[in-house]
Amino acid sequence: MVALFTLCPTSPSSPASLSPLKTPKHKSSHRTKTLTSLHYTKPLSANYTLSSESDPPAAVQTFWRWFSDEGVITSKCAVKPGAVPEGLGLVAQRDIARNEVVLEVPKKFWINPDTVSGSEIGCVCGGLKPWIAVALFLIREKKLGNDSIWRFYLDVLPENTDSTIYWSEEELSEIQGTQLLSTTLGVKEYVESEFEKVEEEVISPHKQLFPFPVALDDFLWAFGMLRSRAFSRLRGQNLVLIPLADLINHSPNITTEEYAWEIKGAGLFSRELLFSLRSPVSVKAGEQVMIQYDLEKSNAELALDYGFIESRSERNAYTLTLQISESDEFFGDKLDIAESNGMGETAYFDITLGRPLPAAMIPYLRLVALRGTDAFLLESIFRNSVWGHLELPVSRANEELICQVIRAACSSALSGYHTTIEEDEKLTEGGNLDRRLQIAVGVREGEKKVLQQIDGIFKERELELDELEYYQERRLKDLGLVGEQGDIIFWEPK
Ligand SMILES: C[S@@+](CC[C@H](N)C(=O)[O-])C[C@H]1O[C@@H](n2cnc3c(N)ncnc32)[C@H](O)[C@@H]1O
Predict the structure, then answer these.
(1) Are 261 and 231 a contacting pair, CB within 8 Å?
(2) Domain harbouring 424, CATH code
(3) Residue 73: Cβ-neighbour burial (10 angstroms; 0-12, 13-18, 19+)
(4) Secondary structure percentages of the chain, helix, strand, coil, to 5
(5) Overall average pLDDT of the 471-478 stretch
(6) Domain total for the chain?
(7) ipTM higher than 0.95?
(8) Structural domain ending residue among the three candidates 228, 260, 291
(9) 402 and 358 in contact (C-beta within 8 Å)?
(10) How many CA atoms lie within 13 A of 91 on its CB side?
């Protein structure tokens, strides 16, 4: 086996929206004080009640009153929470212009690793990964119920989403054979192993801080909340929950690359930071303000992170994993060449429906498949030029081998799905699918289409093997030893 074609879980240790943050070195007493001032001690006012059109649940009304009382929102606020098809969302209270700021949330209402450091559990969370510290914080505050200053926020968080991490075994059986299934299982395994560690090292030894049972399901809930709601790519804030702003839903129709959120100073004379959310498009009163979560994510990533998919074909992707086998007699040389060209023993290629193969994939494949009489290219005198040679067909045998390996891998991957593309299309056309089944059908159909696309590319290549120009011919041409018709010119003594 010269190339491996394996399922490729996304690296669960660095979940996309949970980029690791450095653990703060010291606790902030100022923060503790700020948080105390949030403590709910008086009855909530009756101001800024939500209108009944979209009838948000009582918990949302209470949350809204809390934010009104704390001065985060005023009667002029451009949006309000409402019940929408995506769960809760932000509904425009008046017409909103493109790029208009719709919400600003001061730092004291953010939940991030600093919040944890300044809390009662800060002293036991010091060495934890940022997301684990915040997850423990969320779980603990939730379990504290009425004793938590964050209860009005926690009460509006959903019990789960349609992310595949929350699917039952029966629901998961609908994505049998998909990369999404293997990624989901990988992520769940990762969360479980992190839970076991934190239970042993933090929760169990500090019963006074965690005087209630904490189960794996609690941890999975917190992980899913962070994965679907934490804002990233912010100035110095890679993992932060912003209450209220995190009610913003995703729209597939918004395709602007610009971020709709930023962190800015509260004003000339204030050192406070604000999280500021803008509407990327103009919105009419009563409509939902939405943003684009991430243009780069595949449907499988959207399904895992948020629990929805899109119908755009570019969201369908498949990750091809290729590997230089350790048992390859030229392992060392091949690895050296791969590393000099920015790759390694294993290389991952994300292939997107309707798009060409990634540029480095074929040269890497040719390198992995190099053997026999082609192995001279691995000699050190070629080290500086070998990648250039690999960008063009090396030999018929090498090219044929890469076609065979990839086609066999596609066929094997395709045989792992329990439905055909046609069956999936029929189900989708029939409509009325339950949300999770609709995600399952969309992802498995998309993956199969990408696999068919890859197979098609190499099938076509197989048919061209006799017409391709290989290394030896190019070399003879360079030396002026091949005539116009491809005939070899011999030197004939006169
Ligand atoms: C940041 S939260 C947005 C608020 C959320 N709707 C709620 O009720 O709390 C992200 C979650 O909202 C839901 N969501 C957002 N946009 C969606 C969409 N276009 N289609 C379906 N669900 C969506 C998903 O459950 C996702 O995990």
Answers:
(1) yes
(2) 3.90.1420.10
(3) buried
(4) 45, 15, 45
(5) 89
(6) 2
(7) yes
(8) 291
(9) no
(10) 20
Instruction: Identify the residue whose C-alpha is closest to ligand 1 atom 22.
Output: 86
369 and 246 part of one domain: no
Is residue 425 in some structural domain? yes
What is the number of other CB atoms lying within 10 angstroms of the CB of residue 337? 23
Binding residue positions for S-adenosyl-L-methionine: 86-88, 229, 249-250
Same domain, 158 and 200: yes
Q: Say if residue 242 is in the same domain as residue 384.
A: no
Of the chain, the end-to-end C-alpha distance in Å amounts to: 52
374 and 445 share one domain:
yes
Tell me which of 153, 293, 364, 417 is the catalytic residue.
293
Among 291, 321, 351, the domain-final residue is: 291
In a domain, 397, yes or no: yes
CA-to-CA dists, residue 385 to 68, 328, 340, angstroms? 66, 22, 11
- The three-state secondary structure class of 377 is helix
Same domain, 213 and 78: yes
Rounded distance between C-alpha atoms, residue 454 and residue 355, angstroms: 10
- 178-190 pLDDT, tens per residue? 999 999 999 999 9
Residue identifier of the C-alpha nearest atom 12 of ligand 1: 249
One domain, residues 276 and 361: no
* Ligand 1 atom index nearest CA of 158: 9
Structure tokens, 51: 């209108």
Residue 248 CA to ligand 1 center (angstroms) comes to 7
CB hemisphere CA count around 16 (13 angstroms): 18
Residue 81 token pair = 């929470």
107 is in which domain, residue-wise? 29-291
Please report the pLDDT score of residue 55 as a whole number: 67
What is the tens place of the pLDDT at every residue in 415-473?
Answer: 999 999 999 999 999 989 999 999 999 999 999 999 999 999 999 999 999 999 999 99
How are strands ordered across the β-sheet holding 101-106? 101-106, 270-278, 261-267
Q: How many whole angstroms separate alpha carbon 356 and alpha carbon 32?
A: 53
- Ligand 1: list residues with CB < 6 Å: 86-89, 158, 161, 228-229, 246-247, 249-250, 306-308
Please state the residue numbers annotated as binding site for substrate.
229, 233, 246, 261, 293, 306
Q: Does residue 21 lie in a domain region?
A: no
205-260, pLDDT tens digit by residue?
A: 999 999 999 999 999 999 999 999 998 766 566 799 999 999 999 999 999 877 78
270 domain residue, yes or no: yes
CA of 159 to the centre of ligand 1 (A): 13
CATH of the domain at 209: 3.90.1410.10
Residues 316, 427, single domain; the answer is yes
Q: Give pLDDT, residue 235.
A: 59
Q: Distance (Å, rounded) from C-alpha 69 to C-alpha 39? A: 12
**166 and 80 both lie in a single domain:** yes
